Amino acid sequence: MSETLRVLVVDDEALARARARRMLEEIDGVTLAGEAGSADEARRFLARQDVDVMLLDIQMPGEDAFSLLASIQRRPAVIFSTAFDQYAVRAFEENAVDYLLKPYRRERLEAALERARRELRNPEDLSRRLSEMLASLKGASSPHLERFTVRIGQRQLILRAEDVMWFGAEDKLVFAATEKDRHYVNFTLDQLEQRLDPRKFARVHRSAIVNLDWAAALRPGFAGTWRLQLRDAARTEVPVSRARARPLRERLGA
What is the pLDDT of residue 145? Predict the structure, then answer.
């Protein structure tokens, strides 16, 4: 390992990669070796050149971080990033080099990189710990998004998906609406549609995903559209597109 850490950023979100890139540029003693938007892209990159550290998102379309790690022989130090996985967080605390809860600050990333630098001085121990982490996670995580983090000032708040009434989008930002508040999240609606439990959540509009446990009534709107009323105190109404109204009525028995 050289004095300068070579870092590969692996994340399916271009904005997340750009944010990590900006932070890495502000940290002394590290250089961006490259970026990958998927596990397969990262695997091909690692086959061409070595890196010291991977800043690795956990859940990506197709293969996740654990599948990637299980498929490569020469593993660099890994700093995981996660927005929700409570099982992974517990395992990382015991076995991984470090983990970052999104959204994280530059100072937190810098501390994680310094820890990776120390771990790289003993590569055999690092490899053993990563293998133990993969074994401890096998079959442990739920296939669906159950918890995720949001930032409130300087604090990280963990929200349960079941407490979210609906997810919406405004001005290209995605929010999670609970009965008392709204919180911006680091997911697109398309990603949420893939990761949320389809038995509980339904995409009802291009700008809305609803927790059906909160559904109260489906009402006709203007020009063939519909409005889904929720059972919160404010009687929130969520737009339902014409194309999605029929399957939603069938699910609600309306």
Answer: 78
187: left (phi > 0), else alpha (psi -120 to 50), else beta? beta
Tokens of 213: 């446990």
> Nearest 5°: phi and psi at 236?
-55, 140
C-alpha distances (whole Å) from 110 to each of 55, 107, 113, 123, 233 are: 12, 5, 5, 20, 44
Q: What is the mean pLDDT of residues 18-39?
A: 96
Give long-range contacts, CB 8 A cutoff, 24+ apart: 233-236.
233/179, 236/165, 236/166, 236/177
Model pLDDT for residues 143-181, shown as the tens digit of each residue: 677 877 776 765 667 788 999 999 999 888 899 999 989
How many of the other CB atoms lie within 10 Å of CB of 215? 21
Nearest CA to 205 out of 175, 238, 247 is that of 238
Q: Decide if pLDDT at 132 tops 80.
A: no
What's the full length of the chain, in residues?
A: 254
d(CA 121, CA 48): 23
Question: Which domains occur in the chain, in start order?
Answer: 5-137 (3.40.50.2300), 159-252 (2.40.50.1020)
Place of tokens 């995409």: 203
